[in-house]
Amino acid sequence: MTHQTHAYHMVNPSPWPLTGAFSALLLTSGLVMWFHYNSFTILYIGLLTNMLTMYQWWRDIVREGTYQGHHTPIVQKGLRYGMILFIVSEIFFFAGFFWAFYHSSLVPTHDLGGCWPPTGITPLNPLEVPLLNTSVLLASGVSITWAHHSLMEGKRNSMNQALLITIILGVYFTALQTSEYLETSFSISDGIYGSTFFMATGFHGLHVIIGTSFLTVCLLRQFKFHFTSKHHFGFEAAAWYWHFVDVVWLFLYVSIYWWGS
Amino acid sequence: MAVVLLPQTVTGLGQPFLQLLPFITAGVKPMKLISNSLLTFTLLLKGGHTGSGCVKPGSGNIYYKFSGFTQKLAGAWASEAYSLQGLKLVVSTEALAIIFVTPTKLTSSVTANDYAWKNKVLELQKFFQKADCVSTHLKQSLPDQILYRTTMTLTVGGTIYCLVALYMASQPTNK
What we know:
The complex is a heterodimer of chains A (261) and B (175). Chain A is built from 7 helices and no strands.
């Protein structure tokens, strides 16, 4: 480290953006090779390099923040802006799928029977497992808030328990949704209903898995005493992401499961 | 939002030339402060040139601070280097412990909820702050090197393989 007359973080040169970019090339090309030539090699290499990049990049951020103290308040402010902008981009990502759903369902074409759900489609009962899923995610929103308050008050045991409960609820949601996917009488190739249903709920499920993974990393860091009562941005970022996932589900439930049935 | 701020002085560990970093503790002359200020840091500037080295002997101290809201550089007395603006001074070592664990739990026996994890953050902070001119991603020498080399080999090798495969796939077929 050399002269620094400011509170910003001048990061050491890192190879991970490069390996991340190349892993994206391998992932996309790997998908092409899988779809067209039934070959998995490049895809596997891409997945592996992607996982390795993510692990090492985020490990380095933990080193820089928790061990080297680079995350000053102004640096943290930048990290907050970054996370907020990322979540906004994800909101726009889902907006596309909701647009597609409403475009097709508000004015159903005559080849669907002029109705929504289309003729021949038996939608899932919104008052059964989907309602349970809703309560599971809402409860997880409560438990993560409990975890945050426990952390801020220095109550270690409460924090550990609440975060663990949140993760368990996230896993429970994923398990329930998987079983629902196996239960549906329609598939992704069953017209526009199947496409919009599985694209929207499928990407949401992926985000639940991502959010659960993020929370799990937070739990491991919490076990290792990384978080203090005043400085725990990693956990706050995970909590924001988790609330975002919860809100998307609420929109999905109301639009696709309830109104759309 | 707040962090514990700690000014550093020259030590046998070879502290960085310019210490601005707030961090939980240094193994060096720890002062236990809990900050409620977002705005102010105190800078300890050593005389001399930085060059590219990571360990520098110091001669003469100049103290600066960032003024309140505007963050402009302003002169500061040495006493201010150890008394940050807007901060509450907490001198007991127990205060630091509170940040990591609830005090009542420290003296109790390990419970089922403890999971037998030990707080190694202080040691790790000393380890990762060694001014040995090694980048963060390689600081742990052998494990980091192995992981880095594996990742880079797979990435470069995979990319070459991918480009060859794409080249072959782009050749016209004989149909």
